[in-house]
Design brief:
Length: 94
C-alpha cells in the first residue's frame, strides 16, 4: 500500500476512501500524524491501483522519489567507521 493523497480530517479521508472502494479500488485510511495538533490522514492504495485511483480523484499520481546517488551510501559507511574509530580511541585514551 502506498500513499495517494492526504487530508486534514479523518472524515474527509473516509469519504474519499469510500468513493474509491465504490469504484472497485481497495483503499485504507492511515493516520500519519506525529502530533494530535497536526493531522495527516493518508489514503493508501495498492501500487497497481495508484494511477487509476488518481484519475478517479482528478489528481496527479504520486511519483517515486529519486534514489540516492551511489556515493551517499559510501559516505555514510565512511562516517560510521570514523565515528566507531573515534569512540574506540576515546575509550582507550580515557
Amino acid at each position: 500500500m502506498r500513499p495517494l493523497t492526504s487530508f486534514a480530517t479523518v472524515t474527509q479521508a473516509e469519504v474519499v476512501r469510500a468513493r474509491l472502494v465504490d469504484e472497485g479500488i481497495p483503499a485504507e485510511v492511515g493516520d500519519w500524524s506525529a502530533m494530535r495538533e497536526i493531522a495527516d490522514y493518508r489514503i493508501l492504495v495498492p501500487d497497481e491501483f495508484l494511477a487509476e485511483a488518481a484519475a478517479i480523484l482528478g489528481i496527479d499520481p504520486p511519483v517515486d522519489p529519486a534514489p540516492f546517488p551511489p556515493w551517499v551510501n559510501r559516505l555514510m559507511v565512511g562516517v560510521a567507521v570514523a565515528m566507531a574509530l573515534f569512540v574506540a580511541w576515546a575509550l582507550l585514551v580515557a
